[in-house]
Amino acid sequence: MNRGTARGLAAALALAALFGPARAQAPASRPAEVVLACDAVYLPARTNWVREVRFTLDERRIRGVAIDGVPVYTFTVYETVLLTSLDNERIQLDTATLTWRSDFRGQSTSEGRCERR
């Protein structure tokens, strides 16, 4: 198993653990999905925005990510942290601690907690 596959597997396993053993397994015909609601606080405006993050998983890795219903173009997984961007917002999701962090071109930042829906 190469290093990239091992990292993707760690994040996928962290997300699958959210389901518990019965839900983590999806039928062979369709991949499993994990949906998180992340309550992000954006500064300096001090506004809250609940962001919906949808992960599509198979038994080995994360296959796709959508934020607020918009599929991201690309993402990178490092251990349990997923890195991506959407509309110039750089986003970090830690699947082990269920936390959200983002930066919008240095003009605004956000942090928040996530929970499974």
Biggest sheet statistics: 9 strands, antiparallel
Element order: H for helix, E for strand: HEEEEEEEEE
Separation of the first and last Cα atoms:
32 Å
Strand content: over 45%
How many strand segments?
Answer: 9
Oligomer: single chain
Shape: globular
The overall number of domains is 1
- Kindly report the spatial arrangement of strands forming the biggest sheet: 4-3-2-1-9-8-7-6-5
Radius of gyration: 14 Å
Q: Overall mean pLDDT score?
A: 85
Number of helices: 1
Helical residues, percent: 10-25%
Structural class: alpha+beta
Low-pLDDT parts are: 21-26
Would you write up a description of this structure?
This protein is of the alpha+beta class. The chain has one domain. It contains one helix and nine strands. Strands 4-3-2-1-9-8-7-6-5 form a nine-stranded antiparallel β-sheet. A hairpin with a 3-residue loop joins strand 1 and strand 2 (47-57). The protein is globular, with a radius of gyration of 14 Å. The termini are far apart. Mean pLDDT is 85; it is low at 21-26.
